[in-house]
Write a structure and sequence with these properties.
Length: about 625
């Protein structure tokens, strides 16, 4: 069966359903993705390493947080994913730091201008609002601008029901007094659609910090979060679609003062984003546009130091056009404007702000003989530091046997944050952007039934002008060199039973200045050098579904921040065994049970902080 590519009713080019596929030249079904090129394209026509988490996979992840789901993917570590629910989560893609990945919501960048590195907080995104997730690894600044050094995570929200009204709801309860609840209404009629969703998560938690004596009686650090999403859609005519949206998230979590140190501290955050998306269909192409306004507020309450307040404002406006110029040539051209502000009267420059203006273009060659290539570039003008340029060269070749050989040579950058440029502590307005160059080669070999394949990827990434803090001021100083190997294998035994497995090896070296001399040493802080992940999925009957996963995470290096200078410590390797079972009744009700850390493994993701032991989450999901 051939499936047609279409823009779904939530009016975003980033909202394809998880059934969008096309037939490849060797006869296998190919997933259609949008994040790698910003418009719908078969996965075998891009040389990027792409991970797609489908809606079906998300349904079979009930009871998990977004951080836990992402942490299960090849080459990705979410530090803190299995720690206390309220603990901060850091995204590490292929060993890169947490500030080198962009989180998108329906293709629009989420960003925290008030943060030290600008990274968005994953705790503010509920899973039940998500239709699918597309992850593209590698340098992607040509398409997505600043911070896209290690990869892009595109959270694609669910689209409205294809009828006047449909409700959906879920509720679950489990270990650590954890309660998850979701309720929503959506629908469409004639030229209009709507979608309203509400999510709640709370947990009694565990002590965030480790009690090294086992007798101090550390208190449990709970959390509470709520999220609201509302969208309207209007099919103005056969070509033009408009969609205003509103999203608000609230998070409150109790925290501890430091590793091995109990306290009554807490962290509170809100994120409001609103705006408009538009899509205009052309013959052989489309014009897409969006405007996003985002307002983030954060408060850290410390028993010792009182309250610290942070505010960040972002506006992002983008328009881009994709067009088939001929049978073999496709063009993408766009203009992106981003404005960031940090309301802070204590900063060296009161209430600092900055803007980036970036035109970009990409050219795609698609050939029935199997050769595909992408060549693109982005010119960025930054209000403070000036100009920089990013590029990508991404060829791939699909042999008649279905084997795909791909390569990627690209550059990417990270602009200095407002805190680094103008903040209250050691700012430096003369900072330059961090720049990165990545080289990647991939080999994909299909075998057996459709959906079975093996992929081997080798990559190298060099980051220069890394911004570091000194008592005098932030400076561009360090260099980071990373390389790694990723092996992935998917085996589809039949329509009901499949297995997936992966192995990742990483190596990283940091060059810095110590005592006036360049010093180079191994550096994969909190990131495993080796990681093995395996899962099995079995649709036993149309009603019963079972899956199980196993993760072996190698030893990692961390720092003991209770000493100065900081002393390196080793976090031991660990293995996690998880399982999931569900029963579907009348295609409307799904009863599920999520079991995590079945062996009750004892380990640490961050030195001096606890992780979750064996825990269970059970509930029901309904559609009506």
């Amino acid at each position: 069966m051939i499936y047609l590519i279409y823009i779904s009713s939530n009016f975003s080019a980033f909202s394809q359903t998880d059934h969008d596929t096309t037939i490849s030249r060797h006869g296998q079904l190919q997933e259609v993705v949008v994040t790698a090129t910003k418009f719908p394209k078969p996965a075998d026509q891009t040389g990027n390493a792409v991970i797609v988490i489908t809606h079906e996979q998300l349904l079979h992840s009930q009871g998990e947080t977004l951080s836990q789901i992402l942490d299960e993917q090849t080459g990705i570590t979410i530090n803190g994913a299995n720690s206390n629910y309220g603990k901060d989560k850091a995204i590490y893609i292929r060993g890169a730091g947490s500030d080198y990945a962009i989180v998108l919501l329906d293709g629009m960048p989420l960003y925290d201008p008030s943060g030290m590195g600008g990274a968005f907080d994953l705790r503010l995104i509920p899973v039940d609002d998500i239709e699918r997730i597309e992850i593209v690894k590698g340098g992607l600044s040509t398409l997505y601008g600043t911070d896209a050094i290690a990869g892009v995570i595109n959270i694609i929200t669910r689209h409205p029901a294809n009828k006047p009204i449909e409700g959906n709801a879920s509720v679950s309860y489990g270990s650590y007094q954890t309660l998850q609840a979701h309720a929503g209404l959506s629908g469409q009629k004639n030229k209009f659609s709507y979608d309203v969703q509400y999510d709640h998560l709370q947990s009694g938690g565990i002590s965030e910090a480790t009690d090294s004596t086992g007798k101090a009686g550390f208190d449990k650090d709970g959390m509470n979060s709520n999220a609201v999403l509302a969208r309207l859609g209007w099919q103005v005519n056969n070509h033009l679609q408009l969609q205003p949206f509103f999203r608000y998230d609230y998070f409150h979590g109790n925290t501890d003062a430091n590793s091995f140190t109990d306290s009554k501290d807490y962290y509170q955050a809100t994120d409001l984003n609103t705006g408009l998306q538009a899509h205009y269909q052309l013959t052989g192409g489309a014009v897409h546009a969006h405007y996003l306004y985002e307002n983030i507020r954060r408060t850290y309450h410390s028993e010792a130091y009182g309250d610290s307040h942070y505010k960040g404002l972002q506006q992002d406006a983008e328009i881009y056009w994709n067009q088939d110029l001929s049978k073999h040539i496709q063009l993408l051209a766009g203009l992106d404007y981003r404005y960031m502000k940090m309301p802070d009267t204590t900063a060296k420059k009161k209430n600092p702000s900055v803007y980036l203006l970036s035109p970009y273009v990409a050219w795609f060659w698609v050939n029935a003989t199997g050769f595909n290539v992408e060549i693109g570039g982005r010119f960025t003008h930054h209000q403070q530091y000036g100009d920089n340029f990013s590029f990508t060269f991404n060829p791939s070749f699909t042999f008649h046997s279905g084997v795909i050989l791909s390569a990627d040579i690209s550059s990417a950058f990270k602009a200095p944050t407002l805190t680094m440029l103008y903040g209250p502590y050691s700012p430096n307005p003369d900072l330059k952007p961090e720049t990165a160059y990545q080289y990647e080669v991939g080999l994909t070999v299909p075998y057996g039934l459709s959906g079975s394949d093996m992929r081997l990827t080798v990559f190298r990434r060099n980051i220069r002008n890394i911004i570091v803090y000194t008592p005098a001021k932030y400076i561009n100083q360090d260099k980071q060199r990373d390389w790694g190997i990723e092996y992935e294998n998917t085996l589809q035994l039949n329509q009901a039973l499949s297995f997936t497995g992966s192995f990742v090896f990483l190596n990283g070296q940091l060059t810095t200045l110590e005592n006036g001399k360049d010093t180079t040493y191994d550096n994969l802080l909190r990131k495993p050098q080796a990681a093995f992940k395996f899962s099995a999925q079995w649709q036993i009957t149309p009603q019963w579904y079972v899956s199980s996963s196993l993760e072996n995470i190698g030893a990692r290096t961390d720092l003991d921040f209770n000493t100065y200078p900081y002393v390196p410590v080793t976090l031991k390797a660990y293995t996690l065994w998880n399982a999931f079972v569900s029963y579907t009744l009348q295609k409307k009700y799904m009863f599920f049970l999520q079991l995590r850390n079945l062996t009750n493994a004892k380990y640490a993701e961050v030195y001096g902080y606890n992780t979750l032991g064996f825990h269970v989450q059970g509930g029901i999901r309904a559609r009506f």
